[in-house]
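Journal club side-thread
Mid-discussion, someone asked how the predicted structure for our own chain would compare to the paper's figures. Pasting it here so we can look after the session.
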Amino acid sequence: MTSPQFPIRSAIIGFVVILVALVLAIPAIFPPNIPEITRVTSSVSAVPHAFVVSRAAIPPIDAFPHVTLTKLISPTRQLEVKNAVSLTLDLSYVVIDRDAETPPHILLNTSEAIYIVSGSARVHANGSIVDATAGHAVFIPRDTVQSIVNTGTSPLVYVSILNPFYTEKTEIGIDTNTTAGVSRDIVPLRLWRSNETDPGVYFDRLVLYLIISPTATDRQGLNVTVPYSWGYVTIPEGGGSLPHILKSTSEVIYVISGSATARVGNDSFPLKAGDTLYIPKDTVQAVTNTGQGTLEYLTLLDPYWRPETSVNAKEP
C-alpha cells in the first residue's frame, strides 16, 4: 500500500515557502556590509567637470625612503574627493632626495613614463640603463625590474604616468639577491629630448612636442602599447590656443612654469606652476599665456590623439 502523495506535496511546498521567507528576511535583520568605495561612487556626480588641483594642497606620500610622491590626479584620488573623471591612468609628482633612489621593484602589468622637471637621473630597467636630465622623458615598459637613481647634487623631481592607474596589487618589491621568476630580458628604454623631436605648431603660436603616443612608438619601432598621448607644450608670452574641442578625449594639463588662464566651457581657471587642470571630453576649451615669459606645460590626452580628435570651436 503506497503513502498518500498529497500530504507529502503539501509539506514540501510549506517548507519551501518558509525557506523563501527566511531568505527574504535576512537582509532586513543583518544589513549587508557595503564596501566604502561603493558608497562613495554613488555620491559622485555622473557628469565629469573641469577642475584645478594645486600640488601644494596635496599631502605627499612617503613612497620609499627619501622618496615622496604627490598624486596629482587619478581615478582613485578623484573618487575620494568626489570628482568624476574619465581616465585610465595616474599622474604623480615625485621627489627623490640627493643620494637616494627607488629600490628595485616591478609594476605589475603597468608601464611608467617620467618627465624630469629638475635634477639628474639614472633609470634602470631589466639591465638597460639610461641617463636623463631636466627636460628629458623616459618610458619604462611594464613588468620590468626598475629603479630610478638621483645622480645629481640636488633633489630629483619628475612627473610620472602609471598606466593603468596604481592599485595595491600593482607594485612588487624585489629582493636584489633573488632573480627567480623575474624576467631579466633587456628592454628598450626610450629617452626623449625636445630638440630631437619635430614640433607640431597648433593654433596661435602654441608649439607641441609629442613625447609618447601609440603612433610615435610605432614610428620608433618600439614594442610599446599605451592608450594615451603625452606632450610638452610651450606658449610664448601673449600667445595661446584657439577654442577647440577634443572629441571623446579627456585632457590633463600640468603647468611646469609660467602662468595662464584656461577657458573650459563657461568657466575660467587661472593656472600657475604646480597646478593640474582636468578637462572633460567634448568640452570647448582654450589656454592663454597670461604671464611674463614662456608658458610650459605637459598635456596628457586619454585616449590618445588622432587627426579627428581636435575640432575647432567658437569661444566658450
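Post-session note: The chain has four helices and 24 strands.
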